[in-house]
Amino acid sequence: MKILITGGAGFIGSHVVRLFVNKYPNYQIYNLDKLTYAGNLANLTDIKDKENYTFLKGDIVDAAYLEGIFAEYQFDAVIHLAAESHVDRSITDPLAFVHTNVIGTVNLLNVARQHWKENMDKHLFYHISTDEVYGSLGEDGLFTEETAYDPRSPYSASKASSDHFVRAYYHTYSLPIKLSNCSNNYGPNHFPEKLIPLAINNIKNERPVPVYGKGENVRDWLYVLDHARAIDDIFHRGKVGDTYNIGGVNEWRNIDLIELLCDLMDEKLGRPQGHSRKLITFVKDRAGHDLRYAIDSSKLMNELGWEPSVTFEEGLSKTVDWYLENTEWLENVTSGNYTSYYEQQYTDR
Ligand code: NAD
Ligand code: DAU
């Protein structure tokens, strides 16, 4: 089987690519990535020479490029992760999110539909989405697959739009699709603009740790490898046309999470307890900041037997260790050097 994975040089995509390349040596895995600021081939150095792995540098907004690779490689399935993924960036530049997340997704749907039309049911388009499409919860309740869409940031509006297009292609053109909507991921290779890796980097360097507003917003955190395992399960055993919610059953207020991280890093770095908490700095709140996300994953658990395998204590400890050990990765990413350096290994099509 030939699988096109988009966004495979990013945070979650790189873990999905590695899992598929290692677990399924008979599959050919093609990683299509534009290598934006968030894409980093250093995330995949361990598998880059495997026979069943091919990197394709390209932009999903470029329909002619997609046409060329579909004609050349004849993919059987797509797992679509490529996206602009950071909410704060979407507030300053919403159009970039429309381009990649909406137009890029529709381009992929079009090319898949055209190339697969003779034997549609032998193919699959699996779209990776977010719990943010459901909006914001109060103190109680969980997002289920039936929760009405209520996106509230330009990022979540663009992801909601892409989800709607994916379902529209299923209903209108019988394109076989699957969707999953996941909560906040954390783990190795997470770009240090997002809360957990940003806090780890700042605590390490004794710089202020910015907490938006009063730090009372709640997120449901899932270790990235558990998300990759869920994607594997849904890809192989999920029902065509269906949506699956994926969450960590692990809700934390931002301030409690940051305090936990400060204490954990004090311990690991041999600093006196309470030292790093002094770095916590309350800053202006994010515009339209969603209060709480929490996911009900019971459909995925009951139908496919998935459950999170990594506890938060274990996952956070592994994540901190990874960032403390991979100083070169962190320095390259924060200095912006990595793209030009790694791009040299590959030529554009
Ligand atoms: P990321 O920003 O780390 O990676 C995105 C990848 O997509 C990068 O490698 C980037 O180079 C690539 N890309 C961006 N624009 C592209 C384009 N036009 N053409 C080709 N490649 C392009 O993102 P992530 O956090 O790994 O998220 C991956 C997917 O999972 C996204 O669709 C996101 O919405 C979804 N998701 C993320 C989370 C999370 O907590 N990070 C949770 C749920 C769902
Ligand atoms: O819920 C899934 C989503 O999780 C994904 O779809 C997104 O791609 C991913 O980026 C993530 O979105 P969030 O906005 O929840 O993640 P972020 O790490 O940016 O912020 C987590 C929380 O921490 C949020 O309440 C905002 C807050 N925050 C964030 C940053 C970067 C801070 O308090 N300070 C910060 O510096």
Automatic annotation (TrEMBL):
It comes from Pontibacter ruber. This is dTDP-glucose 4,6-dehydratase. Residues 4-319 form the NAD(P)-binding domain. It catalyses: dTDP-alpha-D-glucose = dTDP-4-dehydro-6-deoxy-alpha-D-glucose + H2O. The gene is rfbB. Its cofactor is NAD(+). It is an enzyme of class 4 (lyase). Belongs to the NAD(P)-dependent epimerase/dehydratase family. dTDP-glucose dehydratase subfamily. Its EC number is 4.2.1.46. InterPro entries: dTDP_Gluc_deHydtase, NAD(P)-bd_dom, NAD(P)-bd_dom_sf. Keywords: Lyase, NAD. Transmembrane segments: none annotated. Pfam families: GDP_Man_Dehyd (PF16363). One of its GO terms (molecular function) is dTDP-glucose 4,6-dehydratase activity.
